[in-house]
Amino acid sequence: MTISLGAFRLSFFIGVCSCLLLPPPTGTYHVGSKAHVLNKTTINDPVAPSGTGTSILINFYYPTLRKSVEREYIWKGLSSLYEEYYNLPKDSFGRIKARIGHDAPPLSPTTCEHLNLPTLIWGPPFAGPPSQLFLGLFSELVSRGYTIVTVDHPYEQPFLQYPNGTGIQGLAMDFYPGNPEVFLNQVVNYRLDDNAVLLRNLPELSEKTGISLNLTHFAIFGHSIGGAVAPLQILYEKALRNTSRETSHFIGAINLDGGMFGAAISNNSFSDTGVPNLLMASQGHQHDMDPTWPTFEAWQSAWTTDVRVLGNSNHTDYSDLIVLKQANGVAGGRNTIQANRMIDLVRIFVRTFFDMVGGRIGGEGILSGSKQARIDWPEVVWQFQRD
Fold first, then answer.
1. Which numeric CATH code is attached to 5-386?
2. Which end of the chain is more exposed for a tag (fewer CB within 10 A), N or C?
3. How many CB atoms are located within 10 Å of the residue 233 CB?
4. How far apart are CA 111 and CA 109, in angstroms?
5. How many Å separate Cα 218 from the centre of its chain?
6. pLDDT tens digits for 162-193?
């Protein structure tokens, strides 16, 4: 595969100054971030040392007019764990930089109202990487005007750092539970509850942080188990609608490479989210390997598309890890999709979906799988499409 000019520039920059830059976003706005600890009790928490969780970590990624300097953005406690895991020298991962402004001033309420975009809710994979390592994707969406709210559950992720500097070490990156089905269903259940608590508290959080949020329309996305929870959350909220007025209006969901759980694969009409869904798989994630995807897709009444990325893509390539691993020689090689190409691909597919469900564009854009789309993205296979 031919290495792109962007990849050449990246490798040149690494060689000159021994640092690494996350590919910059392409939109108008700069990226701001703000962290918040939300008190939330999780009874029978399978990952909390005491058996009871007491909080969740919320991060806001939002558009700002203030340009930021390039800075290292990964917590030292997290980067050191990955360096140890991959047997790399100190700061091999921690040296990556991006333009992000912590506590930067958000856009005015008037500007946000004019943009009229849904608030995006994000869920990370199980046992890492945490939300922080998806900045390559987040920064692109934020630069286009979207605000993203991420939810990380303490002691599940390998490492989280709270705003006061407290580090919380959790499960090992290669953690495997003794009874996977029971354990992962417990994780899915507390993820659903974490998101529900967040949604109930968003009006207060918006006021407290000064970040204007769309409090009526949401879209949800995530990677791995976070992706599996995305459509499930919509089904969860639909069930709440039948018993309570406290419900949120979701207009779409994206699952990045996560197998489905629970009601999403009940194989009946209860699996129907009633809203558009985009599913993106890595090369090995085929329907014969994971029948939960075709089971889910068969019951969807709204627009649903399922694509698979070739080029030896793997599960973690949807995160910033693809940049870090290829730059450090942990991954890559012949016939492997290059980091910049993968980041560009995920950015444009995810962004196009949110632009579509949010009414920014007419039609499906690149997601249609048109002849031109397949020429432009030969490494993408359209596995399922429902208009």
1. 3.40.50.1820
2. C
3. 26
4. 5
5. 14
6. 999 999 999 999 999 999 999 999 999 999 99
